[in-house]
Design a protein that fits this description.
The structure holds 2 protein chains of 2 kinds. Chain A folds into 2 domains: about 10-100, Translation factors (Elongation Factor Tu (Ef-tu), domain 3, Beta Barrel); about 105-265, Rossmann fold (3-Layer(aba) Sandwich), CATH 3.40.50. Chain A is an alpha/beta fold. Chain A is built from 6 helices and 15 strands. Chain B has 2 domains: about 1-210, no CATH class; about 220-345, no CATH class. Chain B is built from 12 helices and 11 strands. In chain B, helix 7 (about 220-225) crosses helix 10 and helix 7 (about 220-225) crosses helix 12. Chain B is globular. The termini of chain B are far apart. The chains are: A alpha/beta, B alpha/beta.
């Protein structure tokens, strides 16, 4: 995504069109950038509140809709707190896209296992849009999703639509039993015990809290996935987004430039890569 | 190649001051520092001769902390200003090496730092041989030498009665012709004198670092120690003051920092330090290197392992500023030596989890 003539520190203005309340702590912000922002599934943008700061997010919307970007945000810090107070009409900034995105070129002819936790389903939804849009993009898609409680299930309105699709399996779980839930209970890794997938012809992509990624990676290795077929959306603090500012490294990798999804084979031997 | 008497350097400074924002070594309270020279010709002190690198690196000239990168105006976001071209006297070989390292990241990369690129296109660098070495100088441990090879516009080599002046760029040649049209070429005796001074100093720097000599590549020693307890011993006196990062000519970590300004906003880049506990802290509070010892290790890993792997150069020039600045008396040379020699398999952690 290089472009010599472009100053990547200067954002593109974006208008906030709509705010969708997903859960008590998660909202989706629908933005119209002043010029189309083309991205590949899994690439991220820096979303800026002018004068306050910015934070990195992978859009949760379709890469095929560069004029209308959706960003799904968990309220958890300075920028995200302020974002959650915004009303439509607000003026924001977008920089990017940055990063490599999901390894979608490897997916045709393969099955894709998507493992999400909490708001980690947001970046994965851009991948789902990509996979749903083109039947050739992958063979089958298996979505395994976990949240702490029923109220915290992100994009709940869309699960039926996903599950009804050909080639698609969708399952959700919550961490502990709850009166409003008659589905699977347990951590998301418990959904991985009885997958109808052949690890030799499947790519696994996971996004969620770091501790979850660690146990998902271990579980996938246990059930026969080669490390080369596991991609994890890693979490690190980022600032510039382009490999200059230095803070997002995991070993020799800059997450902003080489990620944010890294192949487990590349990081499994790096001390503290997964906490 | 020309020979100029010492007053020729003053004429050169005058010529540069008319075109550039000029910086040069200047004595302040008995110490040499890098200072902006007054633009008024009569008042301007001549550039002082620094025998070795100054306490200041050249980094702040073009990579200022607090530099404005962008602004929000009524019409939307616009880029920050491009500063007036700067010229500098007193650059040493290690300083030029540091600029080349920063260029790798900020200029010769898919993504560029536009203000750095613009500044580096326009800057004018007058370099010089080292005529002495600080006790902390260790450029020779990287196979470098205490005189400039490239990356300068003009370079000065001190010889008896003046300097041998060499142009390293077309612009350097033009400035030389215009400012010192009558300067003669050096005599064979003068170039021989220069070569002797150079060789003698290089030998001296090698000798003063004999006790830190290593055999393995630094990368090998560090990777070997990634899971051992040695890092706690190396970092024992580190007080996380960040001085080593700040004085380092190659450290370039920064944080984008936004501030409201009137009805708009302004974005700065602020120098950052990998020794800060909060350096890599994420929203929500998690931080991947909570322990100082992990940050200390990351600093070495980055400079000597991952930077060379990503950019083809070691992110250390052997200038020794970090050694001079460290209030915990941590000596990078000693650390590199200990990483090679203090190998105790008994303390390898089976699993750092």
């Amino acid at each position: 995504m290089s472009n010599d003539a472009t100053n990547h520190f200067v954002p593109v203005a974006a208008e906030l069109l709509d705010v969708i309340v997903e859960t008590p702590t998660i909202r989706t912000f629908v933005l119209r950038p002043a010029r189309p922002l083309r991205f590949r599934a899994g690439q991220f943008v820096q979303l800026e509140l002018p004068g306050l700061g910015e934070a990195p997010f992978t859009p949760s919307s379709s890469p095929q809709e560069p004029e209308r970007i959706e960003i799904t945000v968990l309220r958890t810090g300075l920028v995200t707190d302020a974002l959650h107070r915004l009303e439509p009409g607000a003026r924001l900034g977008l920089r990017g896209p940055f990063g490599r995105g999901y390894p979608v070129r490897r997916f045709p002819g393969q099955d894709v296992l998507v493992v999400g936790g909490g708001v980690g389903l947001a970046p994965l939804r851009s991948l789902l849009h990509h996979l749903f849009a083109d039947p050739q993009s992958a063979r089958r898609v298996s979505i395994q999703y976990g949240a702490r409680s029923p109220a915290e299930l992100c994009f709940r309105r869309q699960y039926d639509d996903w599950a009804r699709r050909d080639r698609v399996t969708f399952r959700a779980t919550i961490d502990r039993p709850h009166d409003d839930w008659d589905g699977h209970v347990g951590l998301v890794t418990t959904l991985l015990d009885d997958l109808d997938l052949d690890p030799a012809t499947t790519y696994a992509v996971s996004c969620g809290p770091e501790v979850m990624l660690k146990f998902v990676a271990w579980k996938l290795r246990d059930i026969g996935f080669p490390a080369e077929r596991i991609y994890l959306s890693m979490n690190r603090s980022m600032s510039c987004g382009m490999g200059l500012c230095g803070r997002c490294n995991i070993g020799p990798y800059y997450l902003c430039k080489d990620g944010p999804d890294l192949c487990y084979a590349d990081i499994e031997d790096i001390p503290y890569a997964l906490g | 190649m020309r020979f100029v008497a010492s007053d020729g350097v003053v004429r050169l400074a005058d010529a540069l001051a008319s075109q550039f924002d000029l910086f040069a070594p200047r004595e302040v309270d008995g110490k040499l520092v890098l200072a902006r020279l007054s633009e008024a010709v009569g008042d301007r002190p001549p550039p002082a001769w620094n025998a070795f690198r100054l306490p200041d690196s050249l980094k702040p000239l073009w990579f200022q902390s607090g530099k404005i990168l962008s602004r929000w105006t009524r019409d939307g976001p616009v880029p920050g200003p491009v500063p007036r071209p700067r010229a500098v006297f007193g650059a040493k070989a290690c300083d030029l090496r540091a600029l080349a390292i920063l260029d790798r990241v900020l200029r010769e990369h898919d993504f560029k730092e536009p203000a750095w690129c613009a500044a580096r296109e326009q800057n004018f660098i007058v370099a010089g041989d080292c005529s002495d070495a600080a006790p902390s100088c260790f450029c020779t441990m990287f196979g470098e030498q205490p005189w400039p090879r490239d990356g300068y516009d003009l370079s000065l080599s001190p010889v008896d009665g003046g300097f041998i002046l060499v142009a390293g760029s077309e612009r350097g040649q033009e400035v030389l012709e215009a400012a010192l049209p009558d300067a003669p070429p050096p005599t064979r005796a003068q170039t021989a004198e220069r070569d002797e001074i150079r060789a003698a100093l290089q030998e001296r720097i090698i000798a003063q670092n004999e006790q830190y000599a290593t055999h393995d590549p630094f990368e090998t020693s560090i990777e070997k120690q990634l899971r051992t307890r040695i890092w706690g011993r190396l970092a024992a006196t580190c007080v996380e003051c960040n001085a080593c990062n700040i004085v380092c000519p190659t450290c370039h970590c920064f944080l984008l920092f936004d501030r409201a300004e009137g009805a708009g906003a302004v974005r700065f880049s602020q120098w950052d330090s990998c020794f800060h506990a909060g350096y890599a802290r994420m929203a929500g509070g998690g931080t991947p290197r909570l322990q100082l010892v992990e940050r200390f290790k990351n600093h070495y890993f980055h400079k000597f392992v991952s930077f060379p792997r990503n950019w083809g150069m070691t992110a250390c020039t052997g200038c020794g500023r970090c050694i001079d600045a460290c209030m915990g008396r941590i000596d990078k040379r000693a650390c590199l030596r200990r990483l090679e020699t203090e190998w105790m398999p008994s303390e390898v952690l089976a699993d750092v989890e």
